[in-house]
Design a protein that fits this description.
Length: 294
């Protein structure tokens, strides 16, 4: 039997109790990863007024967080509502790619993922796409069970499904537009992964995710990407987001080669309630990018 104790709350901040009427005019945002779920709510004024985080209580389990969702949705004070203005879901799947908008064809979505992987997608995977305002389309795989479960929970609500890299692209675009520097590097840390995004003259030039086991591997990946892009690591303007601090081993190691590194700022357009303002601005970039979609 699945219980909520297997999916433990690690953070819960709520500006106010939400009524069914308020929920019907609000946007529910869910960031769904293999072993973690983050929840936010945009109220009718599009303020972030809710942030819950759940993670598996044991790192030894190999079950997906999807296995725990039915119990959580049944008992959660917000997710148990059956009506929202819109539901946005971010997933973190290994299959994703970016296609120039002028070349993208909807009927070939699965083929793009097969070409990227070198083999056909598994039968339980659906190919989804999201068109960015920057001239390209994000194509990614999503577990069919996720879309079926969400559809059962909110059968009358419109959905937007995106990959996590889309939320990071959205959030860094908002930050980049406010910067005067031309070359800007964004590093998003999560577990033993780093997502590297590079923007040049306000255009996205690179986006990819790397797994690493030690800071030597991490340093190699970052410097390799910069070298391939022809970017001077000592001159690029670098921002760190996610699970990192200036005292983290990864941050200290990278700063020896990328001396301009600093902790990233809150993306423009995010309007958190006063209760959420105390959170580190750089910590939840993916969820913030999901809130910025529109």
């Amino acid at each position: 039997m699945v219980t909520l104790s297997t999916l433990a709350p690690t953070l819960s901040i709520r500006a106010e109790e939400v009524t069914p009427r308020q929920a019907s005019n609000s946007v529910l945002c869910l960031e769904l990863a293999t072993q973690r779920l983050r929840i936010s709510l945009l109220d009718p004024q599009r303020r972030m007024v809710w942030l819950d985080e759940y993670a598996q209580s044991s790192v030894l389990t190999d079950q997906s967080v999807l296995a725990y969702l039915p119990a959580l949705f049944k008992e959660h004070p917000l997710l148990s509502f059956d009506e929202f203005q819109h539901v946005r879901v971010s997933v973190l799947s290994p299959a994703f790619t970016l296609i120039p908008a002028q070349l993208y064809r909807k009927e070939y979505a699965s083929s793009y993922l097969a070409l990227m992987r070198g083999h056909q997608p598994p039968p339980n995977e659906l190919a989804h796409a999201y068109e960015h305002k920057e001239g390209f389309v994000s194509v990614f795989g999503i577990d069919r069970a996720i879309t079926e479960f969400m559809g059962e929970q909110y059968p009358m609500q419109p959905f937007t499904y995106v990959h996590q890299h889309t939320t990071l692209i959205q959030a860094t675009r908002a930050v980049d537009r406010e910067l005067t520097s031309r070359e800007n590097l964004f590093l998003y840390f999560e577990d033993e992964y780093v997502t590297i995004l590079f923007r040049d003259d306000h255009q996205l030039r690179y986006c990819n995710r790397f797994g690493y086991k030690n800071v030597q591997d991490l340093t190699y990946y970052v410097l390799y990407v910069l070298d391939e892009l022809g970017v001077d690591p000592e001159a690029v303007n670098a921002f760190v987001y996610g699970e990192s601090t200036p005292f983290a081993e990864s941050y200290v190691a990278l700063s020896r080669f990328v001396p301009t590194m600093h902790i990233g700022q809150l993306p423009p357009g995010i309007n958190p309630s006063s209760e959420l303002e105390e959170l580190p601005e750089h910590r939840y970039l993916g969820l913030q990018g999901l809130c910025l979609l529109g």
